[in-house]
Amino acid sequence: MGGPEFAIAIIAILIGLIICSVPVVLALGLCSFFGLAYLTGNIQVAGSLLANTTYEAIRDYVFAVIPLFVLMGEFISRSGAAGDLYNIINRSFKRLPGRLALATVGGNAVFGAVTGVSIASAAAFSRIAYPQMVRHGYQKSVALGAIAGSASLGMLIPPSVLLIVWGVIAEQSIGRLFVAGVLPGLLLSAMFFLFIVGYALMRPKSFGADGAATQASEEDDEMDAAARKRETWGGIGVCLLIVTVLGGIWLGAFTPTEAAGVGVLFALILAIAKGVSLKGIGEAVLETGRISAPLLFLLITAQMYSRLLALGGIITFIQDLFLGVGDAPLLILALMVIVWFVLGMFIDSVSIILLTVPIFAPLAASIGYDPIAFAIIGIVAIEAGLLTPPLGLCVYTVKGCVSDPEATLARIFQGSIPYWIILLLLVLIIAAVPGVATWLPSLM
User: Fold this and answer.
1) Contact partners, residue 265, CB within 8 Å, separation at least 6
2) Is 235:84 a contact under the CB 8 Å cutoff?
3) Does pLDDT of 398 surpass 60?
């Protein structure tokens, strides 16, 4: 009963619901339910299929990894460790041009390895880094662009929520995806660093070069030994947490879910040591529920949607559509990246993965792309969507967290353009040299 007409109708209805501002979770659920009812000819059978899908999804052990990693990030965020990291990295870079922007990139790289959520990184460094950069004379578009652009590291450097969602939907090893994200994440950080240093050398006044080094030295001198010691222990604690979680996964000591549990325990100890109150710990748990519950509901409806795609022949139809344009793998990859960019203008990253990965992952495998390399390409391309107008969730997060009326959306988007271009360049690098993503997982 499926076929091209059914596939076109389902896709059109799904896109129409999303355009009409129906939440993606409802759009997926409604399309899945009524699509399966049409295919089976029995609404009770459709209900039974979806109930079974929901049960199987909820009981899956791997689903616990999302709230655990989110809780770990909440504990670290509330402990003030993000500020500690920023200050330590800032002092380490004080002789480099654009040191505050470099510290923001470095802080986001490390903080992203704890939270796994770009939005959390953007929110944290909007409050930590922006006031510092403005006080030191940075051009506001440069400061805002550095915060929004480098926040995208949170979705690539593991543990990443997007990598977890991709692994669940594509039925790939989350541990291998985590390890695969390390080298591309470091490469992306290095590319951001090189851009900032080069830009600061060409346009020093945009980076508040006049007197910045002197002010930094004065601030360092004013900092007492006790505060420096607390800051150092906070930074060391976060680094140990990252090494424990990622090292445990890489060495096979933990599954990703077990690593998340160990990470939560470690982060809780660090938060208590840093003076987080019981009320703060309770708020972290509640915030974890607010973040995780919508993601888990999305994953449940995405499993329903995947079942509809398989039963309705929609995957085969779309694959034939792509292959009909041409059989060159790079051309098909370019078309998929364009689809991700267009979707990134309107909907969030998790929803993009849920909508496209059940279709794109089998298509990529059929034309010879390594599943791990393709996953990293997809994550980087979707990251670029976080900076793409008119939605650009990282941009809107920075706007919401900065009280400066001069921090307009136009100014943030303008400052983010170079980082968006660098993300595209990384997509091309991984497409040309898949080993950037696959080398570390091959050592596991």
Assistant:
1) none
2) yes
3) yes
